[in-house]
Design goal:
Length: about 150
């Protein structure tokens, strides 16, 4: 599979992989921007991306250095094959200090993932059975609860 990049401004920087074996392609900020603590901003990368295989979609992820060291995360990031406009990166500053992004900083990474689109069937009862089911809700696996 191939993918093409269109620069939408003179300040746009083409995505790169950190090494030959990197799964992700780094996205860069074409501007200086500051994200206050607890806030989020969409940083437009000034690049548009197209690819030739509709069995794949693009997903934008946090870079580990930004997520771990700076406590900033990518909030959203599914890009479908028919989106051919400026790619934006929504960053959330989870730290207690402003997150300063300089023009040319790597702000996120994208990878291509195989798309699965199962048919939706409305039912009154599930026909798929399992040997056991969970009783807990969000974030309940691997957690012991003490009832009081």
């Amino acid at each position: 599979m191939k993918h093409e990049i269109k620069k939408l401004s003179e300040d746009a920087i083409l995505p790169v992989r950190g090494s030959t074996f990197s799964a992700g392609y780094d996205l860069f900020s074409p501007i200086n921007v500051t994200i206050p603590p607890g806030e989020n901003k969409c940083v437009m990368t000034d690049v548009a991306i197209a690819w030739d295989d509709d069995e794949y979609y693009m997903q934008i992820f946090s870079r580990s250095s930004i997520a771990f060291k700076k406590k900033n995360n990518v909030c959203a990031g599914v890009i479908d094959i028919d989106y051919r406009k400026n790619v934006g990166v929504v960053l959330l500053n989870n730290s207690d200090v402003p997150f300063v992004i300089q023009k040319g900083d790597r702000i996120a990474q994208y990878i291509f993932l195989k798309k699965v689109s199962p048919e939706i069937i409305e039912v009154d009862e599930f026909s798929f059975t399992l040997e056991s089911t969970r009783s807990g809700g969000f974030g309940s696996t691997g957690v012991s609860f003490i009832e009081v």
